[in-house]
Amino acid sequence: MWMAEIPVFVPFFVAAAVALVTRGPLRSVLMLAIIAVSGLHLWLVPAGIEVRVSFMEYELIPYRVDGLSLAFGYVFHIAAFISVLFALHLRDTMQHVWGLIYAGSALGVIFAGDLLTVFVFWEMLALSSAFLIWARRTDRAFRAGMRYLIIQVVSGVILLAGTLMYAHSVGDLEFGFIGTGSPAGWLILLAFGIKAAFPVLHAWIPDAYPEATATGTVFLSAFTTKTAIYMLARGYPGTEWFVYLGAVMACFPIFYAVIENDLRKVLSYSLINQLGFMVCGIGIGTALSLNGTVAHAFVHVIYKGLLFMAMGTVLHTTGTIRATDLGGLYKTMPFTALFCMIGSASISAFPLFSGFVAKSMIMSAALYEGHHWVWLALLLASAGVLDHSGIKIPYFTFFAHDSGIRVSTVPRNMMAAMALAAALCLFFGIYPAWLYDLLPFDAVYNPYDLTHVLAQTQLLCFAALAFVYLNLTGIYPPELVSTNLGAEWLYRKLGRRLIGAVMSWVRGRDSGLRAAVMKRVNGLMLYLAQLHYPGGRMAITRPTGYMVIWVAILLAAYLWLLLSFPNEMAGSDHH
Amino acid sequence: MAERKPYLFDNPRNIKLVIYALYAICAVLVLLDFIVHRHITHEWEGLLGFYAIYGFSCYVFIVLGATWLRTIVMRDEDYYERDDARSDGEGEGRHVDG
């Protein structure tokens, strides 16, 4: 009955179809059950399975299982389960259905063995996720979703162009190491880079994620970017400049996160910062650093989901997510506060929490391979993580000044989802061996040695001390109602202005040209009118005698011609 | 809604307690530097209290940097929406029902 060859995205699409036709508790149970069964199915699938089909002259591999894809496959199941659980209270078929299609598409990309299959799921990923933004059903979200979709589809189109070039030059579509040695490799990298939030290409994350629904952002934070990280890890491991790119990605968003007022936008910047660590790990390219990237993606999906859930819960129950409106929520949301702080401790990489056991591998790898400056930058980024995700998020939401907001109840399914994620954060932090067993590459690492634990604890505690110092002295910048310009300015303002300027220039030229032509036409019309209007030359009524005279003149002329040239006139008749 | 009981951090003493606990932890961590023998990869790691000083100064640098960043990038909250509203006037109505 059971077949290892059944691709894992199939159960998700089945679940989406089931969600479409069922309602209420039945739908809830079925969605969760199908994901759980799919997870069990994947757990039993051995590495090395391949499904091959022929398509035109190419051989496609729509389903391929190996160590790297399995690790991502497991965590995507965990993320899908938690995200669906978190969204159970909704009576919104649209979000349930598209959420499941979205998760299924991500799994489709992860287990695709050729670039054409990747492309198909890549575009499904883009479209299905846009619905999670539109599901907010506000004009603002509609616009944000549109911008998001355009960027995602552009990424897909670039991927298709790169794939065609790749197929033409290599003669094969199999997705393995691609590298930056050919134009096709660069194009495909650009497509992945958009989704992986490379600097300047990153703007869609802080632009779109905070606009999605309270539950939708939990889905969004898990799949798209981690799918891209997987693609980079498979196609471009050991690309030297990724190390520096990753360091930049890890550092620049933290400054934005400090001054941002929308707390889900803070988490979006934080997401880019975390991707920076992963990209760095891919760039270093040793077994240890690649394992670190996979482990970091794994635990990151869970704790970032937890943080987005905590903020989603706050948005759902209070109706706002602006730091300026919040504060003192620990009084009525103690458990949400607790779960949020577990997520914060995990992302800040405190020992015994999941971030520590993963991030340490990338940091150590950077140090072993002699990337000292990058290592220092990553340490700076770690202090930054502590600030925006470790302190700012829980502090301004649940503590700080009392906003006076009192929350009566939090939906039970939201609590359950957060509790599950929090438990996993602790579990992987305390028993890293369970995580390390899932990693695809061969590298031994022990995060809990005394030197390392002490170093990390010192770094974090003194950074926290700095927060206390800056807060007590009033240097820490207050939250302000504002928009902070980022790369999205390029298309939301500059692009808009440019297009506006070009259009108005074209419109000016166009109207000038039309005016000139119309002037001519009008002149002509006027001239004709003058001819025909009363008093015009054509409007003169002439007496009949006039006509008789003219006929007589014509006849006389004819007669004269006939008499003067008789031969010619007669001759013409004979010809 | 009337408050029935004062909450944990309504009492300033409890806030102080948390801060003092942090001071104590930091003090212990620095003292441990004298006792624990580190095996280091980079020479700076061997400096006394390197991670503590670096963590503290990075944090201050980030916060000051971000405060400075505000002077460049900060705009009104409806900075982009104003454009949207303007183009709405020209464009056709939209439906966003799912």
Can you describe this structure?
The complex is a heterodimer of chains A (575) and B (98). Chain A is mostly helical and 575 residues long. Chain A has three domains: 1-236, no CATH class; 238-483, no CATH class; 547-575. Helices cover 72% and strands 3% of the residues of chain A. Chain A is built from 21 helices and three strands. Chain A has helices at residues 9-21, 24-44, 67-86, 93-110, 115-134, 139-170, 183-195, 204-208, 216-235, 242-259, 263-284, 287-318, 334-347, 354-368, 372-398, 412-430, 432-436, 450-472, 488-532, 544-564, 566-574, and strands spanning 50-55, 58-64, 483-484. Chain A has a two-stranded antiparallel sheet with strand order 1-2. In chain A, a hairpin with a 2-residue loop joins β1 (50-55) and β2. The longest helix of chain A has 45 residues, at 488-532. In chain A, 52% of the residues are buried. Chain B is mostly helical and 98 residues long. Chain B has one domain (8-89). Helices cover 61% and strands 2% of the residues of chain B. Chain B is built from three helices and one strand; from the N terminus they run ααβα. Chain B has helices at 12-35, 50-73, 79-90, and one strand at 74-75. The two termini of chain B are 37 Å apart. At the A-B interface, α6, α10, α14, α15 and α18 of A face α1, α2, β1 and α3 of B.
Key terms for this structure?
heterodimer, A: 575 residues, mainly alpha, 3 domains, two-stranded antiparallel sheet, 3 strands, B: 98 residues, 61% helix, flat, disordered C terminus
Number of helices of chain B: 3
C-alpha termini separation of chain B: 37 Å
Order of helices and strands of chain B: HHEH
The radius of gyration over CA of chain B amounts to: 26 Å
The Rg value of chain A, from CA coordinates, equals 34 Å
Computed structural class of chain A: mainly alpha
Distance between the termini of chain A: 102 Å
Task: Indicate the multimeric state.
Answer: heterodimer
**Poorly predicted parts of chain A:** none
Mean pLDDT of chain A: 92
Total domain units of chain A? 3
Unreliable residue runs of chain B: 90-98
User: Major β-sheet of chain B, in short?
Assistant: none
Overall number of strands of chain A: 3
Molecular shape of chain B: flat
Helix content of chain A: over 70%
Overall geometric form of chain A: elongated
Assign a percent range to the helix content of chain B.
55-70%
- Major β-sheet profile of chain A: 2 strands, antiparallel
Strand order of the largest sheet of chain A: 1-2
The number of distinct helices of chain A, counting runs of at least 4 residues, comes to: 21
